[in-house]
Amino acid sequence: MCRFLIYKGKEPMLLSNLLTKPAHSIINQSFDSRLRIDHQPINGDGFGVGYYTLEDERNELESGKVSGPCVYKAITPAWNNLNLQRLAEKTRSRLIFAHVRASSYGVLSETNCHPFTYHNIMFMHNGGISNFKRIKRKLISHIEDEFFLTLQGSTDSECSFALFLDTLFKMGYDPKLDHVVPADALRKALVKTIQYIKDWVSELNVKDPDPSLMNFAVTDGDSIVVSRYVSSKVDEAASLYFSTGSKFIEVSPGQFKMERLNRSQDIIMVASEPLTFERGDWICVPTNSTITIKKQTVMLHPIIDEYYQANPTFIRSREFAESRGLMGTIPKEQGTDKEVPPLEREGRSRTVLGAA
Amino acid sequence: MPLSKHENVFYRLTQDDKKLPLTSSSSDLQSTVMGVSPSITSYRDVSPGMDSTFSDSSAIEMNNSIVHRWTHNQSIICLACSSKYGLLFCGTQDSYILIFDLYTFQKLGQIKAHTGSVLCLHLAKCQTIMFSGSSDSLVKIWNIKIVQSGRAQRQVILELTHTIYSPVDIGDIFSIAWIDSSKTILFGSQNASISFAHLGKTKHEDKANLSSLPSVRYDRFFDSMSSGSNVSGSTTPIPGSSSEEGDDGCQILMASKLIEIPSTNIISYAHNGYVYAMDTICDIDSQKSLLGGTIAEEFNDIILSGGGDGMVKIWGFKENKITLLRSLNNMEPVLSMLTKEEEDCCSLYCGLANGVVNLWDLSTFQLVRSFETVKGDVNCLSLSDTFLFVGTQEGICKKPAVNDNCVRWLPTNTACLALCQFKPGDVSYLISASMDNTVTLWNVNMITKSCTLAKSDKSDVSTTEMIEVLKKMVSFPTVSKQPEKYMEQSRKCASFIRLLLKKLGAVSSVLLPVPNANPVILATFKANSSKPSNSNKVPRILWYGHYDVIEADHIESWDSNPWEITPTNGYLYGRGVSDNKGPLLSAIYAVADLYKSKNLQCDAIFLIEGEEEAGSYGFQDIVTANKATIGDIDWVMLSNSYWLDDNVPCLNYGLRGVVAANVEVWSDKPDRHSGVDGGVSREPTIDLVNVLSKLTDDSGKVRIPEFYSTVKELGEEERSLYQQIIQKVQGAEVHELLTKWRMPSLTLHKVHVSGPGNSTVIPHAATATLSVRIVPTQDIEEVKKSLVSFILQSFKNLHTENHIKIEITHEAEPWLADTKNAAYKILYKNLQKIWGIEPIFIREGGSIPSIRFLEKTFDCEAAHLPTGQSSDNAHLSNERLRITNMLKAKEILEETLNELPCKGSNI
């Protein structure tokens, strides 16, 4: 189980405003993950950040040649990585993927850290595919050699990426040509990838299978598609939120707020957990749907298959996680002063800059 | 804030001027596609409804089209305007709904309506019900209650009737629509859904629960932090029930209810993007409707929704069911929509995220035109009779017609967030909200330059005209103290006023030349009422005012140009608006409106001077010389001072007089060096200081003999007037007011010495400037005499060889009116009636020489009605006048002038 974060902005954003500074930044999430379904709030098995540099952006405009994103990964816990903090203070980008990992499958290694890349395409996964071992061979025999050969690690996530690339390729968009893929095609390829995996797992005919959690995020450097999916009609998918607005402002140290002066979506963030505790700023992505970011516009599409719930008020249960004994404790409401930043209250606040 | 200037007005598509229209912007491209090829001539000709002033209007005129501007400390995101009631509602980023009065421009109030940004407002057709949607995921419904007591400023109360929430996390609410016939509210939200609810039916409300509100209900993430204020039901006040019947056919909804949207009323994925815009076409008449297909036959009401997915969807609404009928693909996110049903076409305008406006024909569902305004979002659209207004990322532009390439930008620099129309009568106004936290009211028709031509006899027309004329008057820098700089401007202003009075109906209006000074205007309106007056004689009332102003030299301390009226937050800013041009126009227009409606029951004589701020130089001579022309006068009236505070209307019944003098002491010797000649002879400066020191004793009391002896004791009756004041005016203290208003005082203004002024010179001469403020019981001649003799005596006692000279530079008699006379009785009654507040009687420490002079000259009494508030900053920077005060002064005078009797008669 992992956490991820996606930023897409009209203006470049300083990485630290997403990764380190906000009260519930992805680095804080790595040790204070509130929504992880298995409720072991430590995402300490490495992390990765991928972003497209501004310089490359300019070069691409001139030469038309893309050079792929910059990716920084490490297997140390994110909160212990001073290099990440230093880089984040000085790096800006318009499109950022970030991921902290708690390994559910695969060993602790840099090759297993997200985001995965292939040419200009980046991919992340938050969730887990049930009985993945038993469909792995099927998956690998399904895909073209060139995508099989990209596999360096061992995880379900990386294999899903290879399957996605293969699917995209078979739809007529060769990812190594670095052409911009229409957002619609990107979305269809991702949904198709989910459908393959879901179908293969159900073909196993496992009795009472655990559902697979497939929150995928993919980008070709232009559009972004993120899915929130669970292969169950009654269980809830891993959490996914998004927030849009005109400015992401730091109102006081560590306290960020999404400013919405107008209808523009100049800033778009998608994250496994909200980065701030501003309730009104975040909205959850409906279960079994995709969120597509095309230019600076968010679009939502349902994934309609046997697990789709047409009734929008249907409440999916968390039984899946509970049956595994991993429901743990949801931090309970306590009658404390709302003004006190929660991390501080719990004695876990950290001054990121002070540590450097 | 200085208004933006010339450089902001330009043709954004001006390159097109040099091009043939066929090769220009996308609109022509589109028309070519549609098989229409406009020729050059048709392009020139097609300008329906484009008024000529517009086509060549200058930047200044564009600025003039700003009628008023309001500011808030946060961004204003949405607007709703009730033309029927002249009210403007603004939804703000900091969750307020602001209420403005569009007749007086005054802010009537604000309420914290939501807990998040108020993103959309919608008014029902009856204009008594308003809907607001917010980023707190709630829709609230408000009854607009207007409380009008007499003619006082009305109050507007927003009464919450319904709070609607969705059990689903829908995020921001961007758009609201209302179908009146079935009492259905629909709203589009961030999660791409459209939800709807019926207000008539109650069955869904059973489920509704305060603890299910989005801000309160348990959320795995947000409630993991803490509870605190988040959890209490405080977010939504649900007041007790009270149902009321509206008068004059207005609908009033039942008392406050909480409604949960039932799951059957949620259309998930109504779009695949945020549902930014909604509109309805209601009560469709199948015989007349031009809607395409069989829509008109099948549905009474249809809904249009525009989304971030670029689609406009047309939904039919019938029997609680919503059916998708059509989808129109705009390819780009639809941020704003506007439908227009006309006799011969039914069209839909869509503002897109790429700066394009698409025009769809709803009879054929075809895209007929599309044109680009800017790069960036088209946030809002508004349509007046003659123009299409497009609110964009870069400002507001207006287009005379969709097929006309001419695009003109209104003078704003910032992104426009919302637009709406205000059409109280013939005149059309545009209201815009900008990113810079302002809301601006624009005159669309652009007031014509000959602003004295009234179009109708409705009083609000003359109100607009009055403000327009004030704008013109303030643009003349009529600084009487600096004739070398401003003499021409003063003369122009005098001529302007003279012609204005003539156009408004004065039988005679002339300029009386004053030697070496600005002219006096004398104009007479004759009674023209057919109503028989009480006596044979028509009362003759003289209005005294002045058109000159104090200088505005420290321009850097002004927030706006002092010679240009800046209308902001219910006030007009500019030099002279309060002293005295604004009050003067209130009087002029009171008379003019009575005259125009053939209801003027008195003769009104205007005597307007141009040297008041320079001591009314030459005024008395001119009036004396023209006494016969002016004729017999029953009352003198004026408005040349201010209220004691900002809230309680006042009547002024007393002014102090003044005697100003220069005292000079000089020696026969020249300036000398103190190191060389110090101590040799008596020094003029020391002599002067010695003399001055005798004027007051150690406690500051004036030592001039009999200085205080004539001051009248404070009577019981008078004391009660002061008691009333301190009860009503915060911070007023009796002893201070008594000292300021009814005690004489002496001030030493400056002491000046001859020579270079360095510290080794013995000046050969020294001059002091001093003045004495005197009160009504003091005789000005006596005061002058005792002042001079006291100084001379003090000087004589010095036994010095130096000389002394005393020169009286200025004098004004004190003035005290009888608050029991007919004029004050009538004024008191009318003030109370029109302000709805009991006025107070005040005096003032200052002096206006002309009042007592006019009283004596015409053997009558004067009445003084202050117009402005104490915060008007008269004589200071950012002088201002509240528009309400100006309008009320006019109303009060309209009533008063017709009631005043002839002098000597009692009422």
UniProtKB/TrEMBL annotation, chain A:
CDD domains attached to this UniProt entry: YafJ (cd01908)
Keyword line: Glutamine amidotransferase, Transferase
Biased composition (Basic and acidic residues): 334-349
Region (Disordered) residue spans: 326-356
SUPFAM superfamilies per UniProt: N-terminal nucleophile aminohydrolases (Ntn hydrolases)
GO cellular component, as recorded: cytoplasm; glutathione hydrolase complex
Annotated Pfam families: GATase_4 (PF13230)
GO biological process, alphabetically ordered: glutathione catabolic process
Protein's UniProt keywords contain Phosphoprotein: no
Glutamine amidotransferase type-2 domain mapped to chain residues: 2-288
Gene Ontology molecular function: omega peptidase activity; transferase activity
InterPro entries: EgtC-like (IPR026869), Gamma-glu_amide_hydrolase (IPR052373), GATase_2_dom (IPR017932), Ntn_hydrolases_N (IPR029055)
Keyword tRNA-binding included in the entry's annotation: no
The protein, known as: DEBR0S1_25466g1_1
Organism: Dekkera bruxellensis
Automatic annotation (TrEMBL), chain B:
Ranges for region Disordered: 227-247
Entry superkingdom: Eukaryota
Compositional bias segments (type: Low complexity): 227-243
Molecular function, one GO term: metal ion binding
Ranges: WD repeats: 111-145
Transmembrane intervals: none
InterPro entries: Cyt/Met_Dipeptidase (IPR051458), GSH_degradosome_Dug2 (IPR017149), Peptidase_M20 (IPR002933), Peptidase_M20_dimer (IPR011650), WD40/YVTN_repeat-like_dom_sf (IPR015943), WD40_PAC1 (IPR020472), WD40_repeat_CS (IPR019775), WD40_repeat_dom_sf (IPR036322)
Keyword Acyltransferase: no
Name recorded for this polypeptide: DEBR0S3_05314g1_1
Peptidase M20 dimerisation domain location: 653-791
GO terms (BP aspect): glutathione catabolic process; proteolysis
Family: Belongs to the peptidase M20A family.
Keywords in alphabetical order: Hydrolase, Metal-binding, Protease, Repeat, WD repeat
